[in-house]
């Protein structure tokens, strides 16, 4: 391979030192430091590791929407609370930064006509990087498989921009690629590399043919903004499933307060999500010997002794806790476990609906839980149309005792339904844009959960979903429009312009480098 210098000796030395860990001076000849096929294979491996890590970075950003669920899962398993999203992002940033720096150094060395002698330390670290990312993807597939569906949905929001970014990145590769092709004397290798590059560029130029997004539409076709359902209230602004959380949700203009109901040992329905009280109360300090018991094993007098707010300030489940005002901090510290009766009274006073699950579904006394809960609802005086009933158990009894209650189903409709399904409540991964549109045409209300990120809210908005359950009501409240909305004609024009400019730049790069 020819080895003409392409830049000054000082620049070449500065590039070669961190990449090869060898200091080359003007007096020292570069004999024995030519780029070999072995070195080229390591450069190809470096490029693949960079792409692999870049894809993981994309996944890491996407799964942030659901990461609070992962934090809760770890707490239930290990009784350790930590915002693992920070660990994920820091580790991912380190890996992508390392592979990016090495790749940039390699490309600059190629442009300068310098040998690509990757040091053995970098080789080991690259192998470790690939193994770490592979382990992360494997763990994601085993323990959190639904996030693959989230990634597919995310492409509806990012597809057009990923296309532009990919075309831009591959276009920039034209300079070092042209340098490599003109310097190498191996005709077979030259033809192979050029063929692969051209095939990749053609695929990228035609990629928009396979890109679909509900947000590629005319402005006048945009459906109404989805209503907001507060997931356990407003858990980013107040302790979840408390009256403060309900009131904060009302301030965010939510139309429904979503919560979870359990029944105490003495028959009082109260708000609580977890089967144990350890995550959201100080039960370990008040009743240390009973802390591991099911929430339903405590009577109402015991539950009223528990602090249901200080954990929120101590563990900071969301970054927004740091920005709370002193008054909000004081109010949060004073929160107690509310009864269903108190929550219904607050919902009635605020004129919002309440939707809840009744837990635990496998309890031996579940039918009594249903009857007790219905009794509280009927005695509260809240208009029954403001009550959205989620539990499937003994649903027919509920319809008979409280015919005005709205029934929400946690499944898709099926053929030959005895009664029409008017409301469904599903994970956002379980419904496609086409299904959402069809349900909307059939006047079926679709609520999807849990939607926290603006990009996801935008995709579902464009799809026509009726409402979303969210932790971030204060963020989604401020959105007056989807993040982006493009008429198909405008997107077509952008596609043609980007591909044309890229093609001209690539031709110019090859002519210039020659």
Throw out a few tags for this protein:
single chain; PLC-like_Pdiesterase_TIM-brl; 3 domains; TIM Barrel; transmembrane; 53% helix; elongated; alpha/beta; glycerophosphodiester phosphodiesterase activity; GDPD2 inositolphosphodiesterase; 514 residues
User: Roughly what fraction of the amino acids lie in strands?
Assistant: 5-15%
Number of strands: 9
| CA distance, first residue to last residue | 16 Å
Extract low-pLDDT stretches: 1-5, 25-32
Number of domains as seen in the coordinates: 3
Count of alpha/pi helices: 20
CATH topology of the largest domain: TIM Barrel
| Multimerization state | single chain
Q: Helical content, roughly? A: 40-55%
| CATH-defined architecture of the largest domain | Alpha-Beta Barrel
Strand/helix succession: HHHHHHHHEHEEHHHHHEHEHEEHEHEHH
Report on the biggest sheet: 9 strands, mixed
* Mean pLDDT reading: 92
Structural class estimated from helices and strands: alpha/beta
**Outline, from the CA principal axes?**
elongated
The whole-angstrom Rg is: 29 Å
- CATH top level label of the largest domain: Alpha Beta
Superfamily (CATH H level) name of the largest domain:
Phosphatidylinositol (PI) phosphodiesterase
């Amino acid at each position: 391979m020819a080895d003409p210098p392409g830049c000054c000796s000082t620049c070449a030395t500065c590039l070669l030192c961190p990449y090869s860990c060898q200091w080359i001076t003007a007096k020292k000849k570069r004999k024995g430091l030519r780029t070999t096929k072995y070195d080229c294979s390591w450069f190809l491996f470096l490029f693949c590791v960079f792409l692999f890590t870049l894809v993981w970075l994309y996944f890491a950003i996407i799964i942030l929407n659901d990461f609070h669920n992962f934090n809760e899962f770890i707490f239930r398993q290990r009784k350790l609370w930590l915002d693992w999203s920070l660990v994920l992002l820091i580790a991912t940033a380190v890996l992508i930064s390392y592979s990016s720096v090495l790749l940039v150094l390699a490309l600059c060395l190629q442009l300068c006509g310098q040998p690509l002698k990757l040091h053995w330390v970098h080789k080991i670290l690259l192998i470790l990087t690939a193994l770490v990312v592979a382990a992360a993807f494997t763990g994601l597939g085993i323990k959190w498989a639904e996030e693959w569906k989230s990634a597919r949905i995310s492409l509806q929001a990012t597809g057009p921009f990923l296309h532009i970014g990919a075309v831009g990145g591959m276009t920039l590769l034209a300079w070092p690629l042209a340098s490599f092709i003109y310097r190498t004397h191996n005709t077979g290798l030259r033809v192979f590399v050029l063929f692969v590059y051209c095939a990749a560029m053609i695929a990228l130029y035609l990629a928009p043919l396979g890109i679909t997004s509900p947000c590629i539409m005319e402005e006048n076709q945009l459906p109404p903004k989805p209503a907001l359902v507060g997931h356990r209230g407003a858990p980013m602004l107040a302790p979840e499933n408390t009256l403060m959380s309900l009131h904060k949700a009302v301030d965010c203009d939510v139309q429904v307060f979503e919560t979870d109901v359990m029944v105490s040992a003495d028959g009082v329905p109260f708000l609580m999500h977890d089967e144990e009280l350890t995550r959201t109360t100080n039960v370990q300090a008040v009743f240390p010997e009973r802390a591991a018991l099911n929430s339903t094993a405590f009577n109402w007098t015991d539950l009223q002794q528990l602090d249901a707010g200080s954990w929120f300030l101590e563990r900071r489940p969301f970054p927004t806790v740091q920005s709370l005002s002193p008054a909000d901090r004081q109010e949060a510290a004073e929160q107690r476990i509310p009864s269903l009766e108190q929550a219904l009274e607050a919902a009635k006073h605020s004129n919002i609906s309440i939707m809840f699950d009744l837990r635990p579904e496998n309890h031996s006394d579940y039918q009594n839980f249903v009857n007790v809960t219905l009794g509280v609802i009927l005695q509260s005086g809240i208009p029954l149309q403001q009550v959205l009933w989620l539990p499937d158990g003994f649903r027919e009894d509920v319809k008979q005792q409280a015919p005005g209650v709205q029934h929400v189903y946690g499944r898709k409709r099926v053929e030959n339904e005895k009664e029409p399904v008017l409301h469904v409540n599903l994970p956002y991964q379980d419904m496609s844009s086409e299904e959402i549109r069809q349900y909307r045409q059939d006047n079926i209300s679709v609520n999807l959960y849990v939607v926290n990120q603006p990009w996801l809210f935008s995709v579902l908005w464009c799809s026509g979903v009726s409402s979303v359950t969210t932790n971030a009501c204060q963020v989604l409240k401020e959105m007056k429009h989807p993040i982006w909305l493009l008429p198909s004609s405008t997107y077509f024009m952008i596609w043609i312009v980007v591909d044309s400019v890229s093609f001209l730049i690539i031709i110019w790069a090859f002519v210039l480098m020659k």
